[in-house]
């Protein structure tokens, strides 16, 4: 790699992300399976950079592309799209002084979800139990607030 190429986050993260991308290219539709990055990255044909192998590539989107392919990736992108759409709807209602579609509580929950789903950051392992519990709590509270609002 030349010194003029951009580095994603850090040289270590760059290696992991580029390796994960190479893994994704091998099986783009369904991927290699959850938690398989740690196994597949040991194959030299995928490795790129100084530290190409770890338990996960430290970015949810790249991890899902490599491990679950486009099918699994669409799940996460759909969740991000929903949160961004809800935020746009809320901002529009404020600007045009319309009826507010979301309560302040729901906006705070969506902000927490957006922080968790933000694509341009490093993350832990998507399939790690305690991390998913923490990330899923705002989703559960948000869905409960919508359900209780409609009933």
Description:
The chain is mainly α. The protein has helices spanning 11-26, 37-40, 60-95, 104-117, 129-150. The chain is elongated. The N and C termini lie far apart (58 Å). The relative contact order is 0.12. The model has no long low-confidence stretch (mean pLDDT 92).
Q: Helix coverage percent of residues? A: 55-70%
Residue-averaged pLDDT:
92
- Please give the radius of gyration in angstroms: 18 Å
Q: Per the principal axes of the C-alpha atoms, what is the gross shape?
A: elongated
Number of strands: 0
Beta fraction of the residues? under 5%
Biggest β-sheet, characterized? none
Helix tally? 5
* Poorly predicted sequence stretches spanning 5 or more consecutive residues: none
Give the N-terminus to C-terminus distance in angstroms: 58 Å
Summing up helix and strand content along with how strands pair, one would put the structural category as: mainly alpha
Element order: H for helix, E for strand: HHHHH
């Amino acid at each position: 790699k030349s010194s003029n190429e951009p580095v994603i986050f850090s040289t270590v993260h760059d290696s992991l992300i580029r390796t994960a991308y190479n893994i994704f290219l091998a099986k783009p539709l369904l991927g290699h399976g959850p938690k398989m990055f740690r196994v597949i990255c040991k194959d030299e044909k995928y490795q790129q950079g100084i530290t190409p192998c770890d338990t996960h590539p430290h970015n949810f989107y790249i991890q899902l592309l490599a491990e679950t392919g486009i099918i699994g990736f669409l799940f996460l992108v759909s969740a991000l799209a929903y949160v961004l759409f809800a935020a746009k709807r809320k901002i529009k209602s404020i600007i045009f002084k319309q009826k507010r579609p979301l309560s302040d509580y729901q906006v705070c929950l969506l902000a927490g979800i957006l922080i968790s789903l933000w694509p341009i950051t490093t993350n832990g392992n998507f399939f790690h139990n305690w991390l998913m519990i923490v990330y899923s709590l705002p989703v559960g509270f948000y869905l409960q607030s919508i359900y209780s609002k409609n009933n």
